[in-house]
Amino acid sequence: MPSSSTRFFAALFVGLLSSSLTTAQQAYDAEHNVTSIAGTWSSGSGAVVTGPGFANPVNFTFNYPATTGISYSFTEEPLSDGSNGYFEEAQYRFQGNGSRPTCIVGVVQWQHGTYTLNQDGSITLNPFAADGRMQVQDMCAAKSNIIQQFNQTTTFAAWNIYQDTTRGYKLQLYRFDGAPLSPTYQVSTTPNMLPTELLTNTTVNTVVIGAASSRRDTSFLPMLGVAGAAMLMGLVAVL
């Protein structure tokens, strides 16, 4: 059985190791982040980009990009509340249904607010609650087109900026559980954003519902493009 002194030094070693790892996570030097986080970042083909071309929170509308993806914009300006600046987020994605393959759900969402670079190396996004918007189109739901107020505080466990040899600066964000998001690439050093202030006085949890759907509702199909629409219409016709 280890002596008390052995156990003490073992505990001390673990503590020192843990402390060194924590310190490494807090580093914002050139080795970890080769350029400023300020600017606009977009994943994949770059079709999804923050700013006025993606969403209009005042009239609850979205402009659908050609392909799915995510985009973030950040300013770098210390704010009076201790935040490091403003952010804007744009997402366009599909969600599958394993039991009903033709019941694909399309989701677009947008929000903006302030962000904080935390001491543990994480980032917290604090949105302006009234302004966030999400549109859900579900081919198989009783209502196919739902647009609602959206407010989701987000914490990224870590982040890094690398130099990609072909596409330039790459921002890698990690979810709260450590899983990486799709990498985003800098498309502009100037943040492409709507005004960095509260834009609406929307009541939180406001929902706007579109027309009732049927199994052959085609309002969802433009999101998939011509090939995707043809494929899904063929599948639905068989069922």
Structural account:
The longest helix has 22 residues, at 4-25. The radius of gyration is 22 Å and the shape is globular. It has 2 helices and 14 strands. It is of the alpha+beta class. Strands 1, 4, 5, 6, 7, 8, 9, 10, 11, 12, 13 and 14 form a 12-stranded antiparallel beta sheet that branches. A two-stranded antiparallel sheet has the order 2-3.
Note poorly predicted spans.
6-26, 211-239
Count helical runs.
2
**Termini, distance in Å?**
68 Å
Instruction: Provide the residue-averaged pLDDT.
Output: 79
Structural class: alpha+beta
Using only CA atoms, what is the Rg? Answer: 22 Å
- Give the strand content: 25-35%
Compute the number of strand runs: 14
Could you state the order of secondary-structure elements as H and E?
A: HEEEEEEEEEEEEEEH
Classify the helix fraction into a percent range.
10-25%
Shape: globular
Largest sheet: 12 strands, antiparallel
List keywords for this structure.
239 residues, alpha+beta, twelve-stranded antiparallel β-sheet, two-stranded antiparallel ribbon, 2 helices, globular, disordered C terminus
Summarize the structure.
With 239 residues, this protein is of the alpha+beta class. The chain has two helices and 14 strands; from the N terminus they run αββββββββββββββα.
Provide the fold topology.
Elements: H1 4-25, E1 39-43, E2 55-56, E3 61-62, E4 69-74, E5 85-95, E6 105-117, E7 123-127, E8 133-138, E9 145-149, E10 154-156, E11 158-164, E12 168-174, E13 184-188, E14 207-209, H2 225-238
Antiparallel strand pairs: 1-4, 1-13, 2-3, 4-5, 5-6, 6-7, 6-8, 7-10, 8-9, 9-14, 11-12, 12-13
